[in-house]
């Protein structure tokens, strides 16, 4: 019970810090909007083409926007010594990682999923496509946060490690991107039922939650 309370306290702490500093959550939304707004200019005024690839544009923008501020997930705590206290606390380090990733998703992934129907208007999505894309983003973006946490843990002690982090985690995010786009497109028609890629996407998120939490905790312990 004490572990659960400590986890909720850590989530609340990170949420307060995010609200006080601003930063990654707002920047992710702005970056998300920039990508979604610029791609139609590159493709031209073909609304049929935009509506077909709209879910892919939103998902690709979400993957890239998730990387904003991800390098600071553990680095800020490493710099001010908080991470040493967390490592030595009686709470398992896996619980600390889980709480920090949850806070990151609440400030980054969840706002992206909630804003995707509005941004879907820029790529000519209809109501059904907007709803399905928002659902897949809500299910799949936690996987992106957990995968990113592994890279963030590996680069926590490296200054300006954002580029290294992106190189490490982007290839691992590709399966989530593929099945997220497949699920969103299946909802608007296709030979594959919507629930099949959605179930695979849910499974990827659960696997990423387990493997990512354990791997990130191991990476944080490794320098010791």
The span between the termini is 28 Å
Proportion of residues in β-strands? under 5%
Largest sheet geometry: none
CA radius of gyration is 18 Å
Strand count: 0
Structure overview:
The chain has about 220 residues and is mostly helical. It has 10 helices and no strands. The protein has helices at about 1-20, 25-45, 45-65, 70-80, 80-90, 95-105, 110-120, 125-155, 160-185, 195-220. Helix 3 runs antiparallel to helix 9, helix 8 (about 125-155) runs antiparallel to helix 9 (about 160-185) and helix 9 (about 160-185) runs antiparallel to helix 10. The longest helix has 28 residues, at about 125-155. The mean pLDDT is about 85.
Task: Please name the defining characteristics of this protein.
224 residues; mainly alpha; elongated; transmembrane; membrane
Q: What's the short story on this structure?
A:
With 224 residues, the chain is an all-alpha fold. It is built from ten helices and no strands.
List the helices and strands and how they pair.
Blueprint: H1 2-21, H2 24-43, H3 47-66, H4 72-80, H5 82-88, H6 93-107, H7 109-120, H8 127-154, H9 162-186, H10 195-221
Helix pairs in contact: 1-6, 2-3, 2-7, 3-7, 3-8, 3-9, 6-8, 6-10, 7-8, 8-9, 8-10, 9-10
């Amino acid at each position: 019970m004490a572990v659960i309370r400590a986890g909720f306290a850590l989530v609340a702490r990170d949420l307060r810090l995010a609200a006080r500093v601003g930063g990654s959550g707002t920047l992710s939304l702005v970056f998300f909007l920039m990508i979604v707004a610029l791609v139609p200019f590159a493709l031209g005024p073909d609304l049929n083409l935009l509506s077909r690839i709209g879910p892919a544009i939103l998902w690709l923008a979400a993957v890239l926007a998730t990387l904003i501020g991800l390098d600071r997930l553990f680095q800020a705590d490493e710099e001010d010594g908080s991470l040493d206290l967390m490592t030595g606390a009686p709470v398992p380090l896996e619980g600390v990682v889980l709480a920090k990733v949850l806070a990151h998703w609440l400030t980054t992934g969840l706002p992206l999923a909630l804003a995707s129907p509005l941004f879907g208007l820029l790529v000519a999505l209809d109501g059904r496509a907007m709803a399905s894309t928002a659902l897949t983003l809500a299910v799949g973006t936690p996987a992106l946060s957990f995968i990113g946490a592994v890279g963030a843990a590996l680069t926590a002690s490296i200054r300006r490690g954002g580029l290294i982090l992106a190189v490490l985690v982007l290839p691992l995010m590709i399966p989530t991107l593929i099945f997220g786009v497949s699920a969103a497109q299946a909802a608007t028609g296709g030979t594959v039922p919507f629930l099949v890629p959605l179930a695979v996407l849910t499974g990827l998120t659960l696997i990423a939650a387990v493997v990512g939490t354990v791997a990130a905790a191991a990476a944080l312990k490794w320098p010791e």
